[in-house]
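Page 42, continued from yesterday. The earlier attempt failed because a stray header line got pasted into the input along with the sequence. Redoing it now with the clean sequence only.
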Amino acid sequence: MPRAKNTDERRAQIVDGLQAVMATRGYERATIAEIAQAAALTPGLVHYHFESKQEILLALIQKLAWVWRERAAEKMERSDSPRARLALLLDAWLALDQHADAEAVACWVTLGAEAVRQPAVRELYLAAVGEAKSAVQDAVRAVLDDEGRSTGESAAIAGGLMAAIEG
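This time it went through. Structure tokens are written below.
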């Protein structure tokens, strides 16, 4: 019987390898050899699973966005209070708790810079930030509604919160 394919596992290892290298060296200075070493794989396997370093970077953006969605969902289940849910949602984006991943935070900062330079990165980065802003806007609207206040400015408030976070 043939062995099960491990492509998804290898790709995840490689993405994690880029995250580890990028957190300390940045994207530009990260090499395929360093990514492979951090992933405990050979450079040939990295090239087998990804056509380019940029393709790994795009997969990293998707991974980090997924991690945020999971953190946000988990945190927001902890409260029924709209104000507390908003605070927990922002905590998930800021990664301020004991489960925070410093490498992921460092990579997200680098991704913001790469989004300015690379259109493909920009597209995924803006989609992730847009998803977060939409979630924050929904949470802000729920707080305002719960407090009997007008929700007309919820988009502007959410935009201001995201601008303060993203810089």
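Notes: Residues 53-166 form one domain.
Reminder to self: strip header lines before submitting.
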